[in-house]
Design a protein that fits this description.
It is an enzyme of class 1 (oxidoreductase). By secondary structure, the chain is α/β, with parallel strands linked by helices. The chain is built from twelve helices and eight strands. Helix 5 links the parallel strand 5 and strand 6. Bound molecules: NADPH dihydro-nicotinamide-adenine-dinucleotide phosphate and (2S)-3,4-dihydro-2H-pyrrole-2-carboxylic acid (A1CAB).
Length: 271
């Protein structure tokens, strides 16, 4: 049975564990969690998902088939140094850490199969938009099982490692941008008299409907936008404000800043 150890047990680890256990891809008895010090969080994960808390670090790490690295970039060096002595040569490392390169991980853990994944927190509902890259030590035969594992938490694209910076900016961070839009649209609607429940429900359904239309893939977003926008109508009035406030520039600046930060984090914690 495949044994998975999560080193780091915060928001992203929980979202992946939620997805994996919900889809029954891996039995919770085979999922182990450990972190730096927060015992309450480990107990919470055990209670909620039935996963195992690592008691014997050496045994758990030596027996692991897959180790997920799910700590913040600033904590990676310390965590990797403490893991290194216990790793089995065949263990596959799957890192979700933003910015930290396969080379940096290799420098601490030695030459071994390493994959980097950029998921997002929608993994909790099986809707992560994940991208994965790997080093040449991941055997061809292991690639599909890794993709299958990740598909249990959503969609998966295989990308070049260099592209993970922009992927992080777009889909890793992406849910936060959309939640920010949700907050702002909801507040604006409330200011104009709608109650919170209706405002939220209408906005969610609008996003869902627009997403479904985009997903059909037969009409470009620009054309879909045009179909909503009657000349001299309400949409045109609204869009004019978005353009006047240079929302397009804000979005370019947002993606640029996020992908730059991913590169900076990689450099800052390079070993
Ligand atoms: N949140 C998100 O939307 C996404 C996050 N990521 C990436 O996932 C990673 C984790 O992010 P997130 O879950 O949000 O962060 P959290 O702060 O929620 O969790 C970080 C976890 O790492 C643990 N940790 C810290 N130091 C060590 C150590 N030395 N050894 C073992 N565990 C340690 C912490 O333990 P303790 O609490 O005890 O200190 C905590 O459990 C980051 O690298 C981030 O870039 C990727 C995609 C999306
Ligand atoms: O904000 C971050 O750094 C992480 C990476 C992607 C989403 N959250």
């Amino acid at each position: 049975m495949t044994k998975i150890v999560f080193v780091g047990a915060g928001a992203m680890a929980e979202a992946i564990i939620h997805g994996l256990t919900k889809e029954k891809i891996i039995s919770p008895e085979s999922i182990y969690v450990t972190n730096k010090s927060d015992e309450n969080q480990l107990n919470y994960l055990k209670e909620r998902y039935n996963v195992q808390i690592v008691c014997d670090q050496k045994k758990a790490l030596t027996e692991a088939n897959i180790i997920f690295l799910a700590m913040k970039p600033k904590d990676a060096n310390e965590a990797l140094t403490s893991l290194a002595p216990y790793l089995n040569n065949n263990t596959t490392i799957i890192s979700v850490i933003a910015g930290i390169s396969i080379q940096t991980i290799t420098n601490s853990l030695g030459n071994r199969p390493i994959a980097r994944v950029m998921p997002n927190t929608s993994a909790a509902v099986g809707m992560s938009a994940s991208a994965v890259c790997w080093n040449e030590l991941i055997p061809e035969a292991s690639k599909l099982p890794i993709i299958n594992l990740l598909e249990s938490i959503g969609s998966v694209k295989v990308v070049a490692e260099e592209d993970l910076h922009v992927v992080t900016a777009l889909s890793g961070s992406g849910p936060a941008y959309l939640y920010y839009f949700a907050e702002q649209f909801e507040s604006a609607a409330i200011e104009h008299g709608l109650n919170k429940v209706d405002a939220r429900q209408l906005f969610i359904q609008t996003m869902e409907g627009a997403t479904q239309m985009l997903k059909k893939g037969d009409v470009e977003p620009e054309e879909l936008r045009r179909k909503v926008t009657s000349p001299g109508g309400t949409t045109e009035a609204g869009l004019e404000q978005l353009m006047e406030h240079k929302v397009n520039e804000a979005i370019f600046a947002c993606i640029n800043a996020a992908q730059n930060r991913s590169r900076e984090l990689g450099k800052l914690f390079e070993t």
